[in-house]
Amino acid sequence: MTEIVPPDGQPMVQVEGVGLTRTDGQGREAVILSEVTFSAAKGRITAIVGPSGGGKSSLIRLINRLDDPTTGRILLGGEDIAGMDPLLLRRRVAMVLQRPFMFPGTLLHNLQRPLAYRREAVPDAGSVEVRRTLELARLAPDLLERDARSLSIGQQQRASLARAVITSPRVLLLDEPTSALDRPTGDQLAAALQDICRHQGMAVILVTHDLRLAGKIADDLIYLEAGRIREAGPAAHVLAEPASAELIGFLAEPEREGKHG
Asked: Phi and psi of 87, rounded to 5°?
């Protein structure tokens, strides 16, 4: 399988003028996203925040073609994903959903599952791949033989993360990964994300309602409201000195953000 690597200086993901419309049962068109443009570099975490219903989850679904944009294009390593085999694309763009799902069996079986699906060599418990992935995801090796569904919700969320990264994707998408976690457990997951991003050189794109999390781990931040990017830039600067009325209002009332965008 050919490795997807962007040319020097080019972002791993480029979203260019993307729009998304849907038609309801009465034939009326609803604009979900409009003229969305941004890029995500390898080794950096990009957080997407904004009010519920603003199009955040719809946007990241486009990046691994769970849906296709109505207008615009999305590039992975400089290649338009519209022309890529969806299976190949999803080997390079992994997604971790809000609620962790564990397959029947042990944690080790769950880590082996994506490789088995691809008919690739399955690593054993003592392999370098498994040991490195457990370390990055902050999971103890003695959990490998535990029934995955008996793990705590925080352990399951980190297990989902480990299962996604063991295949070495180039892009990692996360949709509200800490919404079901308490603060200490969420901080553990955040630390794991930073380690994975830096050590694996992935472009991480994170949808979150948690402004504290975004401020803690994001390198870059995008504020999305009503399907449009209202503000974007280095996370620390955007959160400390918001320039748009929309973001200023959102920061003043973050509780209006729900768990589904």
From this structure: -70, -40
